[in-house]
């Protein structure tokens, strides 16, 4: 293994000791979404939709500052909440959320797409920062909770809310004027917006600012990976770059 490979492998392996432990308290999606959106709802994320009744307007159209409430599904036993930071078109939004791709990780202005048959945002897919692509899982949602005033608030890390790390941020301008290309995503013929631009525009692909301490996660669920698998990934990256 050459010097570059050894260095990359050491960086990846050192992340194993720097990644927040699963037993430690980490930042959850609820306090993050409450701070960023200003929506004053407490309790588990799966209860936000019902709690919003009578307090906030709800609907199925994305708006800046709205909270997208996810249903409990798969490993998300308590649901999930994310805040819309920009509406790109009817099927694409950028969101800000925490504790999704890795424990306590904060992801800002990452892509979420509507893959529902009716276009009502009842089924979505979300950007997965560790792999730099859309997550493989389709996630069911309740819809959007609209704050009284659509304003995004800054989030300042607070140890009282648990440990956190700024995992990734996309350049919002990179998604402007992006054509809504459709590709089939299931045998039933559901359509989704293509997450990456065509090859002709490859240079405009958003660049992630990724914290290398967080390495092997997929859709909220940690993965055990061997040293040989990590080294194989490093070699592939070296060939591609």
UniProtKB/TrEMBL annotation:
Keyword Signal: yes
Native source organism of the sequence: Sphingobium cyanobacteriorum
Record's signal peptide: 1-23
Pfam families (UniProt xref): CHAP (PF05257)
Protein name from the UniProt record: CHAP domain-containing protein
Keywords: Signal
Domain Peptidase C51, residue spans: 4-125
